[in-house]
Design a protein that fits this description.
The structure holds two protein chains of two kinds. By secondary structure, chain A is of the alpha/beta class. Chain A is built from seven helices and ten strands. Chain A folds into two domains: 180 residues, P-loop containing nucleotide triphosphate hydrolases (Rossmann fold); 74 residues, no CATH class. In chain B, helix 4 crosses helix 6 and helix 8 crosses helix 11. The chains are: A alpha/beta, B mainly alpha.
């Protein structure tokens, strides 16, 4: 069943005066077209990766789907209803650190557990989720006392505890070191298998998309259009260096303008 | 050794000062030597006069500071949250802020007569505007991501203000508290040179009138030392977990 349905999405930004025009913006116009006629649909419970060059409007698109931003034209339907504002049923994990730095890990995750009214129940649930993401023993730590990977885990716990219908993730592991990023990638596979949430995941890392996605939506340069939608009917773990996945990988590299063999 | 280093500059200054006064035979009425200042200070400590003046100054600063913080912070928060009101008030605040509180002395005397009230009023003014500005910018400077996340998790009303807005603005407010306490302590000396018969500012004027320059310098030393103690105390606020995060983040 289609859960997210985007139809004819356009986004135009007003160029701010005095700022150098970014490439892709029309020289003679004061306005700048970022998204052009974007349409796609996403199945319930699937893992969709958005792949595209940096600055192509991926983040803008995800913010529009989540209701933080309004499209200039077109509309987004979630479960048949038009999105107009962010909803607590769908959680967004931003590119930058999103834990409240004035709260401990425990207090932060509790923000996601506000639907549980019984305080004892709430605490035990929060502790369970912190344990789930491997933060047992760090309950009373403040975000600045945790490593980058731990902060991301706490944020994932805060999102999962709400049992979100949709989980939006905007390049969540971009700022992490290589090994931590790979670990987080593995854990996302587990999260996807354990929880029923639909996941919309932005990345510019082709391998990450191949490892994680049930579907990859490739966006082009500004003004972005949907260049290609690729379905990945493969189980986990995936070996992307062999077989069909390796062919797909080559194809995607080509689609993204990397022509020489990699 | 490292702990002694800050005191070395003090020691050096005192030695040079003492030697210079003695070598050039400068009169105690134009520049007393450190030894003479120490004697004068001891005289004031033994008679307890100095404590009377310190208490009087601290009393006025406390009241002016307390009243200003209690009014400026809530108003500043509201102006920060309610954008239109903030934009409306901003030019007026920025216009009034650079006017020295001392420029209000004629009105302070005219409206409040003599006694503690005009001094408290001047302290109030010196704290009110900085605190207003710091509280406003504390709110308007909150990262957009935090606001979006609060909206995403459905934080509304009281929860939104108590769990997100106030704690996010707190570090800036605490910076304001520290800076304006310093300002208040600077202003109190001038404020006490009018209309009162106690306080460290009064002590300086009174000592000058009786040509006791050693007492003038003694009072200056006490002002400096008390200011230092006040700053050290309020700095403790910056180490609280609720405040510390903003410094670590940068």
């Amino acid at each position: 069943m289609n859960q997210v349905e985007a139809a004819g999405i356009y986004k135009v930004y007003r160029e701010r005066r005095g700022r150098p025009r970014s490439p892709g913006c029309c020289i003679f116009s004061e306005r700048c077209l970022v998204l052009k006629n974007i349409a796609f649909s996403i199945d319930e419970g699937s893992f969709t990766c958005f792949l595209g060059p940096s600055g192509c409007g991926k983040s803008t698109l995800l913010r529009i789907i989540a209701g933080f931003d309004r499209p200039t034209d077109g509309r987004v339907l979630i479960n048949g209803l038009e999105v107009t504002a962010p909803s607590p049923e769908h959680v967004f994990i931003f590119q930058e650190d999103g834990l409240f730095p004035w709260m401990t890990a425990l207090e932060n995750v509790s923000i996601g557990a506000r639907h549980i009214s019984n305080p004892d129940e709430k605490i035990s649930e929060v502790l369970e989720y912190l344990d789930l993401v491997g933060l047992k023993g760090f309950e009373d730590y403040y975000p600045h006392e945790l490593s980058g990977g731990m902060r991301r885990r706490a944020e994932v716990a805060r999102a999962l505890i709400t049992n979100p219908g949709i989980l939006f993730m905007d390049e969540p592991f971009g700022a992490l070191d290589f090994v931590t990023r790979m670990q987080m990638r593995e854990e996302m596979v587990n999260v996807h298998e354990m929880f029923e949430s639909t996941i919309l995941f932005i990345t510019h890392d082709i391998d990450e998309a191949l490892h994680l996605g049930d579907q990859i939506i490739i966006l082009g340069e500004r003004p972005s259009t949907v260049k290609s939608v690729i379905t990945l009917p493969f189980g986990h773990p995936r070996d992307i260096s062999r077989g069909e996945l390796a062919d797909l990988r080559k194809e995607i590299y080509f689609l993204m303008g990397l022509h020489t063999a990699l | 050794m490292k702990k002694c280093l800050p005191f070395a500059s003090f020691l050096f200054t005192i030695i040079v000062w003492e030697t210079a006064v003695r070598a050039f035979g400068i009169s105690v009425h134009s520049m007393p030597a450190p030894s003479q200042v120490a004697l004068g200070l001891w005289e004031m400590i033994r008679s307890g006069v100095i404590f009377h003046h310190i208490t009087a100054s601290l009393f006025r600063v406390t009241w002016g500071y307390f009243l200003a913080v209690c009014t400026a912070v809530p108003i500043g928060l509201v102006l920060g949250i309610w954008r239109q009101a903030g934009q409306l008030a901003e030019p007026l605040i920025q216009f009034l802020r650079p006017i020295s509180p001392l420029a209000w002395i004629p009105f302070a005397l005219l409206w409040l007569g003599i006694g503690d009230k005009p001094a408290v009023f001047l302290i109030f003014l010196s704290v009110f505007f900085p605190m207003l500005v710091f509280s406003m910018s504390g709110v308007s400077g909150i990262k957009k991501t935090y606001i979006r996340i609060a909206a995403n998790f459905g934080l509304k009303g009281r929860d939104y203000y108590v769990k997100v807005i106030l704690p996010a603005a707190l570090p800036e407010i605490v910076t304001g508290l520290r800076i304006s306490l310093g300002t208040a302590w600077v202003v109190i000396v001038a404020a006490e040179m009018i209309a009162v018969k106690s306080g460290l500012g009064y002590l300086i004027i009174d000592a000058r009138n009786s040509l006791r320059m050693d007492h003038v310098i003694g009072a200056m030393i006490i002002i400096g030392a008390t200011g230092l103690v006040l700053d050290r105390c309020i700095r403790k606020l910056e180490d609280l977990p609720a405040v510390k995060w903003s410094r670590v983040l940068k």
